[in-house]
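User: For a teaching handout, I'd like to show students what a predicted protein-ligand complex looks like in token form. I'll give you the sequence and the SMILES for adenosine-5'-diphosphate. Please answer with just the structure.
Assistant: Understood, here is the input followed by the structure.
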Amino acid sequence: MIIAIDGPAASGKGTLAKRIAAHFGLRRLDTGLLYRAVARAVLESGGDVEDPGHRRDAAKRLDAAALRDEAALRQPGVGEAASIVAADPEVRSAVLAFQRDFAAVPPGAVLDGRDIGTVVCPCADAKLFVTASAEARAERRWREMVAGGSDAAPEQVLADIRRRDARDTSRAVSPLRPADDAHLLDTTDLDIEAAFRAAVDLISGSQAAI
Ligand SMILES: Nc1ncnc2c1ncn2[C@@H]1O[C@H](COP(=O)(O)OP(=O)(O)O)[C@@H](O)[C@H]1O
Ligand SMILES: Nc1ccn([C@@H]2O[C@H](COP(=O)(O)OP(=O)(O)O)[C@@H](O)[C@H]2O)c(=O)n1
């Protein structure tokens, strides 16, 4: 079984993907980490993510070991840089096979990102598009950052989320959008437990329909 979970930053897709994978006994791939790892490799080598040569080289050299240092990959600056490298079609095609190979291993997997239901796994057994208002998402991300010791201003976090949303939805290749057959799940007024229960119901409904 393959479950695709897409949505904008801090909508809760990673939290849901982890719990859904445990619930259904599946492996999970956070595909955002791939783009974050490409961006981090460019930044660490003193390169420029706006330079197509730099980001394409980093994408071609990417290996699974680069996904291990999650704390470093989750730094806010890396998320911003990731959305810049992710708009490059050559970067996207360099990481496509890794995602499809991961999903193809039995018994299947949960993948979360921006284009799982539309491009990476268009034949997924169940697709969720997880959203929440920009304000709710910024508040969640801000709380997470403060818990991690950051003194970022809430309005700055909201501005960053809006900028990333705009870049991710407007790019020419694999823009963030719900697949036609995705279930929409708005978590603005749902806590983590309620969102998880709603997600399991939607996925179980998709299974019953197959
Ligand atoms: N439904 C929810 N209500 C409140 N907080 C949530 C909810 N879902 C996730 N969170 C919190 O919001 C933050 C971002 O969630 P995460 O799953 O990492 O989002 P994404 O993977 O979409 O970026 C985390 O700190 C997480 O604990
Ligand atoms: N399948 C994916 C996953 C992430 N991305 C890009 O990678 C960036 C970081 O993704 P992420 O999922 O780690 O970000 P958060 O939602 O956790 O903040 C996004 O802003 C997207 O630009 C993508 O283009 N396609």
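For the handout, you might add this sentence: Residues 7, 9-15, 140, 144, 187, 190-192, 195 surround adenosine-5'-diphosphate (ligand 1) (CB under 6 Å).
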